[in-house]
Records
---
Amino acid sequence: MAAVAPVMIVTILIILMLQLQSMSRMAMVFMTAPLGLIGVVIALLVTRAPLGFVAILGVIALSAMTMRNSVILIDQIRAEMEEGLDPWNAVVEAAVHRTRPVVLTATATVLAMVPLTRSVFWGPMAIAIMGGLIVATFLTIFFLPALYVAWFRVKRGDASTGRSCTCACSGACTLSRSFVRDGMSSMSFFRRTTIRAPSSARSVGILASKDALSGNEQPALKAVMAGAFGV
């Protein structure tokens, strides 16, 4: 097993590099692999199960599960940044969006290991995976985003720039901007028309502008045309 370990580590690093395409992110994901050891030690001590060969197999499988969750979270952060979010809000949105899938997957794995805990041979492996996965999932959700922010020195986004809108309100922000833009265009149009109109028709243009503000755009346009061109 000691002779195969270097090959296994190199293979894992190559796969992570192909998936993440970044040395920094690859190192970050690889650093999350030992997070499950905390839960493994606690679970084995509570149940008084031996740390034997099958338990070590469970630790290896647990490391793969932890790195998989980390890859999913980091890939979601990249996807959020590609959609236009600043890095700070991308980390927050990725953590929120991926919490439920990660927790549900971990819960299903833990529940699937419950029948094996009564086995004499496979019991330590099931206990190691259950205890380690519970702790590793919790640490991945909270520790990995904090590690990402500290690693890449991400600063809190400025809400006044308009880039800190979350995915839930981005549509509302875009819609409100379009309303403001259309409203400014309408005001500019009626202002230019009123200025160019004869003095006898300016009152008609002012009334038309009031109608436009109230939402009656077609009557307003007709009134402006009538006042400007004497139709």
---
Amino acid sequence: MVLANRIDEVLKGGRRSLLKIDIKNAFNSIPHSVITWGLEAINIDEKLKNYILKMLKSRKADIDVQLKTGVPQGDPLSMLLFIIAINPLIMLLGKEFGEGSIVAYADDILITGKKNFTETDISKVVQLAGYFGLKVNREKCQMINKEDETQILFAGVPLTTTERVQRVEEITSKYKKELQNLENLEIPQHHKLILFQACVNHEQLFHMFVEKSDLDSWEDANKAAIDYLQKILGIDDLPTELVELSWELGGLDTILPNTQKLAVNEWKKQVAAQ
């Protein structure tokens, strides 16, 4: 949600050129020296800093060589350490291309501007990233200028030069296909219910936060969810109240798309009123 709002913020006020930067093998290539610099820049507690650096230093490859770059895959600290390390680069890009022009999500970096971008701008990013031991994959960088009618994909979100692209129909179609695939699995019914709640429906509810849409747009997805539950449970006319009632009270404890969208709309109103 924060990312979506940030994208909307930088795209408002007319057409803007977009430049998406792809950092090659970002998480595995960030130097430990840059991580150290980042930790010191935020004045982290000395004991905690030493603990983190010792953890990084203890990592070795299969050939018993000490690794001097990268953050551990699957470690809860890895994303945070990467963000701390790359933040100075983001700040430098902001100074180069203008304050408020950068949107960053982990290793995804989007630069926006009122002027057209050129290959020279990518070369400048290559130079700045190099200061931090990072390499830019020029072939995977994407650039669209103000007069272009094409799209780019940033952090899974399609963008034009003016707005995020609404994907309700695409997302709903994928949701219905996943429900069909789940229904066809040869597993116990209660496993189908658990997978629906924990995976398929959970992903769908995430889109309620980031998609620019009204409540009616998700009616098809809402109906698909109820139809699926009725089929696997063998119940006709399954009441919505029973679907969303908690386990403790004998319900399915499942949030439906429409209910999630209502909650998101109410949350947005409260944020706007603050």
